[in-house]
Structures are given as structure tokens and as C-alpha cells.
Write a structure and sequence with these properties.
The chain is an alpha/beta fold. The protein contains 14 helices and 17 strands. The protein binds zinc ion (ZN).
Length: about 450
């Protein structure tokens, strides 16, 4: 009997390895050994039976984690009617365009969004797909993530209250609640992998309190707990959202979430710009996670989420680029920079360090998505990491290359490893022909514009 030879990659001689391990060590002149799908060793002078990658002039970090996106929206960037609108007006402009999409649009837009994330250092992304027009399915995005090679947490979103029932979305974009729950069960059974090292985990994610019923929110929470999957939605995004909650439900969003089973370590909410002190306390006690989406919050004029206050209270906070109709970029390291700067606008120059924000962008994201096997460079963790070339123009003259990742750049990785495999090498995606994806994406966007 022969033992299979393990697949190894040695990343050798990095200027700094930012581990995000238990003591947040930063190792100068260190190596990282990847064996099969895991990190085997970290430290100086390692050797390998496999290939060697020279990382001199580079900073190595854990892969960044994106906890909120609507990948399909890469097809509706910078739409004129939505450029200057608040959330509800923005949605009313875009719903009719989104209703014309189908499976090909969902797949190609996901390839585009995931490519952009990968090149900006992201190894693990969530997605929130809450409409399935013209035969689109969740697996259209799962196939795109597998093609690029990213670790992926798609969520089966949904809308059920259309305009004729007093909701915001077009009637043609909403689904029957029984059909929604049945499709949640179908995609969980088909694609969710609960094991450590999983490449795909599925979540349940009704779109928002203003597009589904209380009954669906409650049923979704029961279903998710029965299946052992996570829950995700939008919450407390702006003042309109709070006013809607008070008028329709007679309570603030935090109370609404708690009443319907939407707090806990298996729940994360996007935005939370308008959480008050009591709601921050609730999220901390219940270990409910937050996906902070600073560029989208700026773009829609929603406000600055109280990240400093949430972190001080013990709330789990992560980053999300949000959909590309309201960002409209999907660069995750740039999102971290924006998050850092906004906390300083809100709370002063000493409110948040670049290192704390880098932690939120990596380890913080893994924690919010329930991944204790991701987010740090330490033996036994998933082999997900980003290699940043700090010898180029953006970081030239930088005294502290780790802080410079957020304060100056670079904003793209040289190499990206996911599950031990090189997804980006030398600044290029290894498994897709990016120019062809861009060409198809632009053709589909022009067709949608009519
Ligand atoms: Zn969103």
C-alpha cells in the first residue's frame, strides 16, 4: 500500500507574515508551508517537497473575507436613475431592470464580482441572492465560485411582499413563501457542506423586513436552525428603514429581529448603520454578527455605522462590499480602507488602527461567517492567504508595510491561495480568461439597458 504524496507549496521569505493568530504575531522574514488544503507550518527556514514561491518584497496576510454582496448587481453599476437616490428610490429604479435578468446574467455577473474580489485579496465571500427571475437559480452563482476557485457562502435570499401588497419590489420579482422555503431546503440539501474546510456553505436570507412577511422571517429562522445553517438579512440600514419598522411593526429593528428568532451566533445582519445603544448591547449579548458596508452606506447617504461602539461592546463586526449597484466597486481591501477612514471621521484619528481594521477584514469576517478554520495563518487552518507585493509604486517609501496595505496600497494582490490552490498568480486569475468574462458582462449589461 502506498500513501499518496501530499501537495505542498512553500511561500518563502516574506518581508512580513501577518498571522492573525491568538497573539496576533507578525513574523519578519518568515515562510508559510501549505500542505494539501491546510496550512502546515509558519516560521523561518521551512523546507518542502513541493514548489517554492519567493515572497521577498511581499506582505502575506490571511485571505480577506467578504460578508455581504449581491453579485448580480455588477451588471447594474452606475445606472443613471439610481446614482443619486436614497435606498427606497434606488430600489424602485433598479427592480424593473433586475426583473429582466436570467441564469446567464446571474452566472456571468457572479464571475465578474468574484474576480474583482479575488484580485483584491478575498478568499472567502458570501453572497445574498434574493431574486430568481426567468429561471435563475442559486447554483448559477455556486458554479461561478467553483470556476474561479473561491470559498463561497451563498445565501438563498427571497422577497415575498410585492407592490400590490404594500411592499417595495415589483410583483414579478416576488415568490410564494412556500416555494421559497422549499427551494431553501433544496439548495441546503444539495450544496451545504457543514464539515471543516468546506468550500461551500449555504445560508437562508429573506431580503429585508420591508420585502418579506413576519411569518417568512420566523419560518426561515426555524428552518435554518433545523438544518444547522446560518441566517442573514439587511437590518437598520438608514432612517427610512427605522421609520418603516416603527410604522409597520411598532418597534425598532433590533426588537423585530429578536422577536422573530433573528439574533444569535448563527445570524449576521448587513449594514446596522442605525443600531442604537440598546441594540448594540443585544447584538453583543447574543453574539449576532454585523456586515459593515461602508462604501454602500456612503453612496446611498445612509450614514456611518457605529463600528467603534460595536467593537467596544463586543459585537462581531466584519466587512462587506455590498452589491455593485450601490458601491459600485467590489474591491475588498479598498473597502477596508474606507471603513478605517470613516471610523476616524466619526470618532477621531485614534479611533481605529490599520491593524484593527485588517483584523476585521480577515479574522473578523471568518468569525461572523462561523468559520473557526479560516481567517488566520496558523498550522491546521485552511490554506487561504493573500500575498501583497509591497515593492511597487503604491507602497514605495512606506515605513510600515502592514499599515500601508490600508493607508497606501497596493489594492491588488500578487498571488492568492484558496484551499491550497493558486487562484491568482502574478496578478492574474488562473482559471478564467478575464477579458472574455468582461466582454460577455458588457454585452449583457448593454442588452439590459435596451
Ligand atoms: Zn445589501
Amino acid at each position: 500500500m502506498t500513501t499518496p504524496v501530499p501537495h505542498e507549496t512553500l511561500i518563502r521569505g516574506a518581508d512580513v507574515v501577518v498571522t492573525m493568530d491568538a497573539t496576533r504575531r507578525e513574523l519578519k522574514g518568515a515562510d508559510v508551508l501549505l500542505r494539501d488544503h491546510r496550512i502546515a507550518a509558519v516560521g523561518p527556514g521551512l523546507s518542502t517537497i513541493g514548489s517554492v514561491i519567493d515572497a521577498t518584497g511581499c506582505v502575506v496576510t490571511p485571505g480577506l473575507v467578504n460578508t455581504h454582496h449581491h453579485l448580480y448587481q455588477t451588471l447594474t453599476r452606475a445606472v443613471p436613475g439610481g446614482q443619486d437616490a436614497l435606498l427606497f428610490g434606488w430600489l424602485r429604479t433598479l427592480y424593473p431592470i433586475w426583473a429582466r435578468m436570467g441564469p446567464q446574467e446571474i452566472r456571468v455577473s457572479a464571475l465578474t464580482g468574484l474576480a474583482e474580489l479575488a484580485l483584491s485579496g478575498c478568499t472567502l465571500s458570501s453572497d445574498h441572492l434574493y431574486m430568481y427571475p426567468n429561471g435563475a437559480r442559486l447554483e448559477d452563482t455556486i458554479e461561478a465560485a467553483a470556476e474561479i476557485g473561491l470559498r463561497f457562502h451563498p445565501t438563498r435570499g427571497a422577497m415575498s411582499i410585492g407592490q400590490s401588497q404594500g411592499g417595495l419590489p415589483l410583483d414579478s420579482l416576488v415568490e410564494r413563501e412556500a416555494d421559497i422555503l422549499n427551494d431553501c431546503i433544496r439548495v441546503i440539501d444539495a450544496f451545504h457542506d457543514p464539515r471543516p474546510g468546506a468550500m461551500v456553505r449555504v445560508g437562508v436570507a429573506p431580503c429585508s423586513p420591508f420585502s418579506v412577511s413576519r411569518g417568512l422571517m420566523r419560518d426561515a429562522a426555524v428552518l435554518a436552525r433545523d438544518k444547522g445553517v446560518m441566517l442573514h438579512t439587511h437590518l437598520a440600514e438608514n432612517d427610512e428603514d427605522i421609520a418603516y419598522s416603527l410604522a409597520q411593526f411598532g418597534c425598532r429593528p433590533g426588537q423585530y429581529a429578536e422577536d422573530l428568532g433573528w439574533t444569535g451566533a448563527d445570524v449576521w445582519h448587513a449594514h446596522c448603520v442605525k443600531l442604537d445603544a440598546a441594540e448594540i448591547g443585544l447584538f453583543a449579548r447574543s453574539q449576532t454578527g454585523v456586515a459593515h458596508c461602508p462604501c454602500s452606506n456612503c453612496r446611498l447617504g445612509s450614514g456611518i455605522a457605529p463600528v467603534r461602539a460595536m467593537r467596544d461592546a463586543g459585537v462581531k463586526v466584519a466587512l462587506g462590499v455590498d452589491g455593485s449597484a450601490s458601491n459600485d466597486a467590489g474591491n475588498l481591501i479598498a473597502e477596508a480602507r474606507m471603513a478605517l477612514l470613516l471610523q476616524r471621521v466619526q470618532n477621531g484619528a485614534d479611533a481605529m488602527s490599520a491593524r484593527e481594521m485588517l483584523e476585521i477584514a480577515t479574522l473578523g469576517g471568518a468569525q461572523v461567517l462561523g468559520r473557526d478554520d479560516c481567517g488566520a495563518i496558523a498550522p491546521g487552518m485552511c490554506a487561504d492567504l493573500a500575498i501583497w507585493d509591497v515593492s511597487g509604486l503604491e507602497a514605495a517609501g512606506a515605513w510600515d508595510p502592514v499599515a500601508a496595505l490600508l493607508l497606501s496600497g497596493p489594492a491588488r494582490v500578487r498571488d492568492l491561495f484558496v484551499n491550497g490552490r493558486g487562484v491568482v498568480r502574478g496578478g492574474r486569475l488562473t482559471s478564467i480568461e478575464l477579458p472574455r468574462v468582461i466582454e460577455t458582462q458588457n454585452r449583457l449589461a448593454r442588452a439590459l439597458a435596451g
